[in-house]
Structures are given as structure tokens and as C-alpha cells.
Amino acid sequence: MGTATCTLKGEIKVKITVDQRGKVIYAKHMLAGSTTSNSTCVREAEALAKQWEFEPAAEGTGNVNAIITILLQ
Predict the structure, then answer these.
(1) What are phi and psi of 58, to 5 degrees?
(2) pLDDT at 48
(3) Which of 20, 13, 14, 4 has the alpha carbon at shortest distance from 66?
(4) Do 29 and 14 meet the contact criterion of CB atoms below 8 Å apart?
(5) I need a surface site. Which of 31, 34, 45, 71 has the fewest CB within 10 A?
(6) Which SS3 state, helix, strand or coil, does residue 39 take?
(7) Residues 47, 51, 54, 57: what is their CA dihedral angle, to the nearest 10 degrees?
(8) The pLDDT value given to residue 26
(9) Which residues, 6 or more positions from 13, have their beta carbon under 8 angstroms from its beta carbon?
(10) Reported pTM
């Protein structure tokens, strides 16, 4: 991803799905809980979230997909 162009102050709530390897495979802006819906900021927040990696969620003896919500400022 290139240089960020969003200069607005605020919070963007993003719902993400993390796969069994800890990679973000889905990221979508959530209007409820966000203080801005500026399209540039939303696109950048979703793209940023897709770059993150997490510790995989475990269930029983294996890893599973997980859905979580993050708040970006």
C-alpha cells in the first residue's frame, strides 16, 4: 500500500475475518461505531487491516477462522 492520504480525524470500525494461519482474508467497514465514512479513509482502513497478521484462533486440537472487530483511529 502506498502513502496514506486520509487526513481526517476519527475512528473507523472494521470487521475482519482471520483465517487458520492468522492472515486477514476479509475486511469491511462497519458504519455503526465509526465516526467517519469518508470513502478514502474507509478504503485505507480496510487495506491496512488486510495487511495485519494475528495469532490463529484455536478450537480443540486445531486452528479455526475467527471474526473480530477492530477500531482504527
Answers:
(1) -115, 145
(2) 94
(3) 20
(4) yes
(5) 31
(6) helix
(7) 60
(8) 98
(9) 29, 30, 32, 33, 34, 69, 70, 71, 72
(10) 0.85
CA dist 59 and 40 (Å) reads 37
The per-residue pLDDT for range 16-70, each reduced to its tens digit, is 999 999 999 999 999 999 999 999 999 999 999 999 999 999 999 999 999 999 9
All three cell numbers of 16, joined, read 475482519
Contact 46, 24 (CB under 8 A): no
Give the per-residue pLDDT at 56.
Answer: 92
In single-letter form, the type of residue at position 44 comes to E
Query: Which three three-digit cell numbers place residue 28?
Result: 469491511
Q: Which one-letter DSSP state was computed for residue 23?
A: B
